[in-house]
Amino acid sequence: MQNSATIASDFAELPATASRGPLRIEYRWINDAAADTRADTRIAVFLHEGLGSIAMWRDWPQALCERLGMRGLVYSRPGYGLSTPRAHGVKWPVDFMAHQACDVLPALLDALDIDMPARQRTWLIGHSDGGSIALLYAARHAGALAGAVTIAPHVFVEDISVQSIAQTKQLYETTDLRNKLGRYHADVDSAFYGWNDIWLNPAFRQWSIVGELAAIREPLLAIQGHDDNYGTMAQIDTIAQHVPHARLVKLDACGHSPHRDVPDKLNDAIAAFIASQT
């Protein structure tokens, strides 16, 4: 397996729209060997967590893509990694995840010449905020993907989430957490406060995408750890209530990041689910 640290990032230029300026998005293709063997190779697009980036995924996307026999696309959302940073005076809006699902991700796929047949072979694999973005994309782009895997997603705001995010802010401002996160972001304050400020904004307490879930038609796997300090099983149980065909996996001895806590169990669950859909 190739070490992700040895792979240089590429950059996609997204033109300005009526609602935002131009964006420069850091991305990488992984497991290109899969693309060399079949013209109809499936693609896994990875959507990172609220403080994530390409670098923070480390080698897990590569390992999973090799297991699945898929080509993978990882990218850093605006404000993260080496992508266009968030201007420090700009606050993410309450619907920032819908903006990512309906504007930034489709624009990136366009920029990379991923046409509709290729999108229909694409699996979205999202973690935390990225899991919510995957759900929103699936709900609003029926027929434009093969399926989705959502890991520790948020579909509404829980007290446990707000409490943990407030604690993380204290750690960021009083410990070496800022320096640690600085390894993964060109502008670490842009990344951290973009995420932290919106989640701690009182207006965000009313945020919910529950009403959108019933529109999801493609295969859906929702995964949650029993020891997640950013959300409870109510998140994926709510998904199951509104998406009857969704399959749930609840992982023991697992916190908010199954790809770090129990990667083998996570990979087994994802591989088994995707195999069952083909």
TrEMBL record:
Keywords: Hydrolase
A Pfam match: Abhydrolase_6
Domain AB hydrolase-1: 45-269
GO molecular function: hydrolase activity
Keyword match Membrane: no
SUPFAM superfamilies: alpha/beta-Hydrolases
Coiled-coil regions, chain positions: none
Gene3D superfamilies registered for this protein in UniProt: alpha/beta hydrolase
Tagged with keyword Transcription: no
InterPro entries named among the record's database cross-references: AB_hydrolase_1 (IPR000073), AB_hydrolase_fold (IPR029058), AB_hydrolase_sf (IPR050266)
Name used for this protein in its record: Alpha/beta hydrolase fold
Species annotation: Paraburkholderia ribeironis
Source lineage: Bacteria, Pseudomonadati, Pseudomonadota, Betaproteobacteria, Burkholderiales
